[in-house]
Design a protein that fits this description.
heterodimer; A: mainly alpha; B: Arc Repressor Mutant, subunit A; three-stranded antiparallel β-sheet; 16 helices; elongated
C-alpha cells in the first residue's frame, strides 16, 4: 500500500484539518502502515462469516429500538452553553452562504 | 449570487429534445419524536428547545432508533411497491455544515431499507409506471438562518430543533420525461404517503422536499445527456417552473454548440431561474461507512406481516371501493380521494346519511364552495361530517328538498348548529301535505294562463317554469318531484 502525500492532504482537507508539511509526512507514513495492515486482514476469506454487529444476548429484533414517546429536552440556554457564540436562543456561526 | 440570465431555448428547439428526469424526494415521517433520540418533532417550538445531547451531537451521546419511524418507513416502502430488505444498514455520510453538529448524517447507503418499487402516474390520459429505485431512512439537519438579524451580514443563526427529524428519501429511476410527469409523480407520492399515514406531506412546513436530476437528449437518442442536479424545489409549482427552466437552459446550451456541465444548481424563486453553486468538488466525497453506533436493522417476516396488516387503505383501492360499494361515478371517486382527509370525511357523511351517492354530491360539490370562500381545508370544516350526514339524510328521507338544504348548509357553516335546529328555528320543512301543495299549484296555474296554453300546445319545456313558480311560492319547501307529478296531472 502506497499512500501519497497528495492523498493525505485531500483527506485532511475533507476533515477540516490543517497539517504542517512535517505532519503530512508523518501521517502518510502512519496511515500507510495502518492500510498495509488492513490489506493483510483483507487476505482472509470471511465470505462465510456473518459480520458481528453486536454482542448482545439473543433478543427480539425490536430490542434495540425505542418507543416513540417524548423524553426530556434541554432549554436553549443549556443547549447553547458551550457554544463560542450564541444569541436569541440560536447558535451563531460565521456567515455561511451555500453548502 | 450570479444574476446573469442564461439564454433559453425556443419551444421549437425544445420539441426536438427529450428531457430525462429522476427525482429524489425527502419526506418527513409523522412521528412524535426524532429518529435517534426522544426529542419532540413539534413544529414551531422556540429555537434550540427540542434538543438533547444526541441531536446536538455532543460527545458520547448514542443514537437509539425509533421503532415507529421504522414502521412508517416500511409502510411507505410497501405503498411504493418496494421490496423491503430483511436486513438494512445505517451509514454515516460525512460533511461539514453548521446545521449538522455531528459532522455526519446518519443515512443508509449500499443496503437501504427497500428497493425495486414503482408508482403509476397518469399523464394526458396515459398510464405509466415510474420506477422507484430505493427508499431509505435518514435524519434531517437543523436550520440555518442567513437573513433577518441585525448582524446577519456577519453571522448565520442555527436552530437545531429539526436536527434528527426522521426522513425517508425516495429515489426514482430516470423514468420521468417532462415537468408535467414530474408533477404527477409528486402528486401521487404525496397522496399515497398521506393515505398510508406515513407523512402529512405539508410542503409549507418542509415535510416534502424534492431535488431533481435533469438532462436532455435528442429525441430518439439512446445515451443520456450530462445531468445537472437542481435543488430547492420546495413546492409543486416551483418544481415545475424549475424543471421547465432547466430543460430550456440545457437545450439552449447544446443548440449553441456548448455542453452541459455536471453540477448542482439551486432554484432561485425570485429570479425564476436555476443558478449554479460554487461548491468545491470535494464536497461530494461523503466517505460513507457503516454507522458503528447502530446495529443492523433486521425486519422479520412476522414484523413485516404486522406492519402490512396495519396498512391503511391506499387511494387506488379506496377509489375502486367507492365505485363498487357506493355506486359513485369514476370522476366523483377521484375527487373524493384527492386527500385522505376528504375521503375519511366523505365516508362518515355517507354512513350517517345512508345515501352515499347523494352524500358525494354534497361533499364534492356544496361543501368545497363554502370552504374555498373561507380559505379553509376540509379538516377545518365548521360543519362536522356527522352534521352534514344528517342534512343529507333529511334530503334522502324527503324531509328536506335539495333547495332548502342548500339554504340551510351555509347557516350550519356559520353557526355550527345542526340542520334540525335551524329547521325548527326557521320553520323550514319539506311540504309533505299534498292537499296544501295542490292548492298552491292551483293558484300558480290560475295566475299563468299564457304558459298553460303553451304547455297544452305541446311546449312541455314550460314545466320547468311551473315547478320554479311552485318552489318560489312554497319558499323551497315543496318536493320538486311531487310538484312535477301534480302539475303534470292538472295540466294534462
Amino acid at each position: 500500500m502506497k499512500l501519497t502525500e497528495e492523498e493525505v492532504r485531500y483527506v485532511a482537507d475533507l476533515a477540516n484539518l490543517e497539517l504542517s508539511a512535517a505532519e503530512i509526512a508523518r501521517m502518510a507514513k502512519d496511515l500507510d502502515s495502518i492500510l498495509t495492515h488492513i490489506d493483510k486482514l483483507n487476505k482472509l476469506d470471511v465470505s462465510q462469516v456473518e459480520p458481528m454487529a453486536q454482542v448482545l444476548y439473543e433478543a427480539e429484533e425490536t430490542a434495540t429500538l425505542s418507543a416513540d414517546v417524548a423524553g426530556p429536552t434541554y432549554d436553549s440556554a443549556t443547549a447553547t452553553s458551550n457554544a463560542p457564540l450564541a444569541g436569541g436562543g440560536f447558535f451563531k456561526v460565521p456567515k455561511v452562504i451555500e453548502r | 449570487m450570479a444574476t446573469t440570465t442564461a439564454p433559453l431555448a425556443t419551444p421549437e428547439m425544445i420539441a426536438r429534445y427529450e428531457p430525462v428526469i429522476g427525482l429524489e424526494v425527502h419526506c418527513q415521517l409523522q412521528t412524535n419524536t426524532k429518529i435517534f433520540c426522544r426529542c419532540p418533532t413539534s413544529f414551531g417550538a422556540a429555537p434550540n428547545t427540542n434538543v438533547c445531547p444526541v441531536c446536538l451531537g455532543l460527545p458520547g451521546a448514542l443514537p437509539v432508533l425509533n421503532q415507529h419511524a421504522v414502521e412508517l418507513a416500511i409502510q411507505a416502502a410497501l405503498a411504493l411497491n418496494c421490496q423491503v430488505r430483511r436486513k438494512s444498514i445505517f451509514a454515516r455520510k460525512n460533511y461539514f455544515y453548521p446545521d449538522l453538529p455531528k459532522g455526519y448524517q446518519i443515512s443508509q447507503y449500499d443496503r437501504p431499507l427497500a428497493e425495486h418499487g414503482w408508482l403509476e402516474v397518469t399523464v394526458e390520459g396515459v398510464k405509466k409506471r415510474i420506477g422507484v429505485t430505493r427508499v431509505h431512512m435518514e435524519d434531517d439537519a437543523g436550520k440555518s438562518i442567513h437573513d433577518g438579524f441585525k448582524d446577519s451580514g456577519v453571522y448565520s443563526y442555527v436552530d437545531l430543533n429539526r436536527c434528527g427529524t426522521p426522513l425517508i428519501e425516495i429515489v426514482s429511476e430516470p423514468d420521468i420525461r417532462g415537468s408535467e410527469e414530474a408533477y404527477q409523480y409528486m402528486t401521487e407520492i404525496k397522496q399515497v404517503l398521506q393515505f398510508a399515514g406515513v407523512s402529512t406531506c405539508d410542503m409549507e412546513k418542509g415535510h416534502l422536499r424534492c431535488d431533481a436530476n435533469v438532462s436532455v437528449r435528442l429525441k430518439g437518442a439512446e445515451k443520456f445527456g450530462t445531468k445537472a442536479e437542481v435543488k430547492n424545489l420546495n413546492s409543486f409549482r416551483f418544481m415545475k417552473q424549475a424543471l421547465d427552466y432547466e430543460i430550456a437552459r440545457q437545450v439552449a446550451l447544446i443548440e449553441g454548440g456548448g455542453r452541459v456541465t455536471q453540477e448542482t444548481r439551486l432554484w432561485n424563486t425570485e429570479l425564476g431561474e436555476t443558478v449554479g453553486m460554487r461548491s468545491k468538488e470535494a464536497a461530494h466525497d461523503y466517505r460513507y461507512f457503516p454507522e458503528p453506533d447502530l446495529v443492523p436493522l433486521e425486519i422479520s417476516e412476522a414484523w413485516l406481516g404486522r406492519v402490512k396488516a396495519a396498512m391503511p387503505e391506499l387511494p387506488a383501492a379506496r377509489r375502486a371501493r367507492f365505485v363498487e360499494s357506493y355506486g359513485l361515478r369514476d370522476y366523483d371517486a377521484q375527487v373524493l380521494t384527492l386527500s385522505r382527509a376528504i375521503s375519511d370525511y366523505y365516508e362518515r357523511v355517507a354512513q350517517t346519511s345512508g345515501d352515499p351517492k347523494l352524500a358525494a354530491n354534497w361533499v364534492a360539490g356544496e361543501l368545497p364552495g363554502l370552504l374555498k370562500a373561507d380559505g379553509k381545508e376540509i379538516e377545518e370544516s365548521p360543519v362536522p361530517a356527522e352534521k352534514l350526514g344528517e342534512l343529507v339524510g333529511l334530503i334522502a328521507k324527503g324531509e328536506l328538498t335539495g333547495k332548502l338544504a342548500k339554504e340551510i348548509l351555509p347557516k350550519m357553516y356559520a353557526t355550527g348548529d345542526s340542520a334540525k335546529t335551524i329547521m325548527e328555528r326557521e320553520g323550514l320543512k319539506a311540504m309533505s301535505d299534498t292537499g296544501e301543495l295542490e292548492k298552491i299549484i292551483d293558484s300558480v296555474i290560475a295566475a299563468n294562463p299564457k304558459q298553460v296554453e303553451q304547455y297544452r300546445g305541446g311546449k312541455t319545456a314550460v314545466m320547468a317554469f311551473f315547478v320554479g313558480q311552485v318552489m318560489k311560492a312554497t319558499r323551497g319547501q315543496a318536493n320538486p318531484a311531487t310538484a312535477t307529478g301534480i302539475l303534470a296531472r292538472k295540466l294534462a
